[in-house]
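Hi R.,

Here's the chain you asked about this morning:
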Amino acid sequence: MTGSLRRRPMASAWAPMHEPLFRSLWIAAVISYTGTWMQNVGAGWLMTKLTMSPLMVSLVTAATTLPVFLVMLPAGALADLVDRRRFLLITQSWMVAASAVLGILTLLKVVTPWTLLAFTFLLGLGAVTNDPAWQAITPEIVCAENHAPAVALNSVGFNVARAVGPAMGGLVIAAAGSGWAFLLNAASFFGVIFFLYRWKRPHFEHLETGRVGDALLAGLCYVRGAAVVRSVLIRTVAFSLAASSLPALLPIIAQPHGATGYGLLLGSFGFGALAGATVLPRMRSRFSVDGVVVFAILLFAAMTFAAGRTQSFGWLSLVLFASGTAWIAILACLNVAAQTMSPSFLRARALSMYLLVLQGGMALGATAWGGLATWVGVPQALLFSALALMAGLVTVPRHRLTSRELEFTPSVVRE
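And here is the predicted structure, written out as tokens:
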């Protein structure tokens, strides 16, 4: 595999915001992400009102995660076969319908635990089907030099929503109930839908035809034969499995500080991500991609260890802030590498494999670290997680990250 990315001047962290298309979509996406976090809080809270069974409560998360393993790869293949704009309009409308129906049923007080799980699964199905196409359109709405900071800003938007959404969801649920949180989530999708409806997507340059199964097989064959793709996936799984402990165990760490404290800690993580996105272009202009990622992983490992040993709320807030900074640096670099690791006509399929490894690794890792924490305690589990993060650095010499931004070709011809 070739060496790491050539160091060169990078665009400003906020440069993509000067492009009207990206700015409009980013704002709409943050609103949509906020609604999704409100939905997650509402679903978990409603299940505790319907039943106190730990199994049923845990199945809420499982119902959201299961579609990742079921449809992520076919969704990527389908997104490479059809017009991604129309495809996204369908998936976004699907999620509007699922959220709205669940909200109405909840307000009518006819929701059962299994009804809630069914609609949670339907929402997860829509989100997972949406993800590969959503990630694949980023290069189509920004110029090439703004691609890397645009990816970082997308991650920042998600983390800002993760900081704001749960707090807003808690306020809405306390004031009006989970049903209204679900309805607000349904409304939050309309900004994205409006953007997609008005977006005049340029003509296709490459449009593959055929069956989804054949397209999926072609994507798998490409991954098997492409060293750059294997390197990105190996680095991603090494990180996601080890790093999932902190977000998974944070509710337990924050328990002494109450629900408000938990929300503030999530906010610290989100603001750390915002700070990380601001300094990331400068770091990428001075250091290789691998240099940035290695430093960020070491920082995240240190903060993971510290989170299990810190009792003070103030210090814990600083730990979460630093964790958010490292988190955004790692994921932004992985995302750019994933978006540029394949030809444009294979982009959604390659991204679906990357997202499967990332999200699946986070889900499996969270389960494993939760089980270990039950056995040895949270501080020890976080210690082992930090050691696993550092152990994952052995993959760096043989699987270096590259990003072919200079040679990157969009999947459409710009007019």
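One quick note: Residues 20-50 form the longest helix (31 residues).

Cheers,
M.
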